[in-house]
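Same chain as my last thread, 296 residues:
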Amino acid sequence: MVNVNVICFLASYSVVLIMELMRLLGRSPVRRTIMLLFGTAGFAAHTLYLMNRSNQANLPPLLSSSHDWLLVLAWISILMYLFLTTIDRNLAIGLFVIPLVLFLIAAAYFVSDSSMPVLNVSNLRDAQQAALRRWVMLHASLLVFGIAGVIVGLVLSLMYLVQHRRLKHKQTMQRGLRLPSLAVLSRWNWWAVIISVPLLTLGLATGFGVAFLSDEAVPVSMADPVIMIYGVAWAVMAAFFAWLLTTRRPAGKQVAWMTIWAFGFLLVTLVGLQVLAGSGLDSFHAGGTRDSSGLV
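reply #2:
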């Protein structure tokens, strides 16, 4: 298989961002073609890289390492961007999605790229090991799609605030920047929150299943400061979810700001703590263990 590295698709996505920024100067078929070519090339290199990593570890990308887990999240985001950009050439979603993708790829550079220790314990029977892998796969899948929903919510909220400001200052005719209406953005944002929070909650719950199954190999402490901080991040998000369900017709701008604060705090917590720790999401440490989600 072709040998590719992170720089290949990181450089391609950087060119895409430059082309997206140049859309503010006006629409250009040439720039759009360059943007799609580099986006597609980066996505292909991104896919090959994850496949290579998966083959080397003999594990799905979601389980092979924390490094790969973050890159899967960036891969899903790019797939969404390419799909929406292809069906609507005037939608300026890349200005909001690509910076988050670059952030995830940059963060992946600083986290562990080794296989998850929880999958390699030797004192579990074969049946327990198989059950553990199934639980971890379910756990990682729920979390990656839940956090993909978080990214969608952040993007929609940023788009809402930008569109709100443009309407307020009567800048709707700005060249090269077309966004959906406030009503559409508000409705999509509501659904992003309603879908992503339950997925993340189920991901957290299955994480406790992983902790239970791996308890024989490595003791799990709920007093682990990292787990506690992630618990606080989830509580903030859950409180926002409850407020959204119980408030009748909340203002779209208010929902957008609360989405940015709640989801932004969760995303920065998820990525920031592991980068600062310098040991990755799946590292074992005194008093507990963390798997590919960083929550358990």
